[in-house]
């Protein structure tokens, strides 16, 4: 079974708790992402902020663009280590009804695994299985 480190995204954009919500939104827009980890100075993860957090906890509550990320971020996180299996990560996402998990080793953020990563992994396994099935079912021609 594959581990999270084999399918996670590790080239991450992050922000600090003191960044403004406009700065977080701009990073999301510029990088075409819907979530940004919120980290301390040592890459320790403090929380996550999603595009939904910005809208629901931020703008819908009349917070202006200069409000700090720490006012809208989620800080009760479920995380996994890079050695966690893909299946365990999938089970955690289902159990907690979340789409993304921060990957944390020794207290430091090393990546994010998302439902999309799992879907791609599952799709490639199915494709390999289909190919094997096709090879196994072909009649021998001599």
From TrEMBL:
<dbReference type="InterPro" id="IPR046342">
    <property type="entry name" value="CBS_dom_sf"/>
</dbReference>
<dbReference type="InterPro" id="IPR000644">
    <property type="entry name" value="CBS_dom"/>
</dbReference>
<keyword id="KW-0129">CBS domain</keyword>
<protein>
    <submittedName>
        <fullName>CBS domain-containing protein</fullName>
    </submittedName>
</protein>
<dbReference type="InterPro" id="IPR051257">
    <property type="entry name" value="Diverse_CBS-Domain"/>
</dbReference>
<feature type="domain" description="CBS">
    <location>
        <begin position="8"/>
        <end position="65"/>
    </location>
</feature>
<feature type="domain" description="CBS">
    <location>
        <begin position="73"/>
        <end position="128"/>
    </location>
</feature>
<dbReference type="Pfam" id="PF00571">
    <property type="entry name" value="CBS"/>
</dbReference>
């Amino acid at each position: 079974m594959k581990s999270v480190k084999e399918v996670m995204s590790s080239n991450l954009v992050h922000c600090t708790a003191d960044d403004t919500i406009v700065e977080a939104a701009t990073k999301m827009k510029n990088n075409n992402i819907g979530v940004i980890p919120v980290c301390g100075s040592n890459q320790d993860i403090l929380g996550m902020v999603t595009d939904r957090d910005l809208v629901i906890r931020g703008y819908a509550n009349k917070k202006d663009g200069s409000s700090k990320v720490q006012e809208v971020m989620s800080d009760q996180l479920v995380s996994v280590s890079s050695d966690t299996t893909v299946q365990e990560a999938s089970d955690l996402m289902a159990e907690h009804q979340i789409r993304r998990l921060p990957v944390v080793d020794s207290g430091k953020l090393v990546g994010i695994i998302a439902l999309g990563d799992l879907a791609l992994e599952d799709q490639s396994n199915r494709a390999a299985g289909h190919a094997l099935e096709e090879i196994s079912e072909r009649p021998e021609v001599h």
